[in-house]
UniProtKB/TrEMBL annotation:
Keywords associated with the record: Membrane, Transmembrane, Transmembrane helix
Organism of origin: Actinomadura litoris
Transmembrane portions of the chain: 66-85, 106-129
Family annotation (Pfam families): DUF2752
Name this polypeptide is given: DUF2752 domain-containing protein
């Protein structure tokens, strides 16, 4: 059973290392990380803009600030945790891997939500979604 959990454990360790790095190297200070290419080229924020600062705020326990920086990233973190947990349990029980990503309606719904968030955060009435 231990061998089956090496990959999920590795993903968990890698995620922990990334969070620790972003917690230690402040993305709010200029020059620590590259600027988003979409933001640089268009002046508009992509769906991921603010995600590093969101992770930094969460790592320091500031949930309110994290929500203000990228609410979509905050919504997706529990979703990612759920899928990682489901994968880990399946590996622990030696179940076969899923060959289908999911119901196409859910995938298209997620894509639509990302596109809607991207659009609304760059419109004047959606400025509260921009960090």
């Amino acid at each position: 059973m231990t061998r089956r959990l090496v990959l999920p454990g590795g993903v968990l360790v890698l995620a922990g290392v990334v969070v620790a790095y972003v917690a230690a190297i402040d993305p709010n200070r200029a020059g620590n990380y590259p600027t988003c290419p979409f933001l640089s080229l268009t002046g508009c924020q992509c769906p991921g803009c603010g995600s590093l600062r969101t992770i930094h705020a969460l790592a320091h326990g500031d949930v309110r600030e994290a929500l203000g920086l990228n609410v979509f990233a905050m919504v997706m973190l529990p979703v990612l945790a759920f899928f990682w947990g489901r994968w880990t349990v399946a590996r622990a029980l030696d179940r076969p891997p899923r060959t289908k990503a999911g119901d196409p309606r859910l995938i298209w719904g997620l894509l639509g939500a990302v596109m809607l968030f991207w659009l609304v955060r760059n419109l004047p009435f959606g400025a509260f979604l921009s960090a």
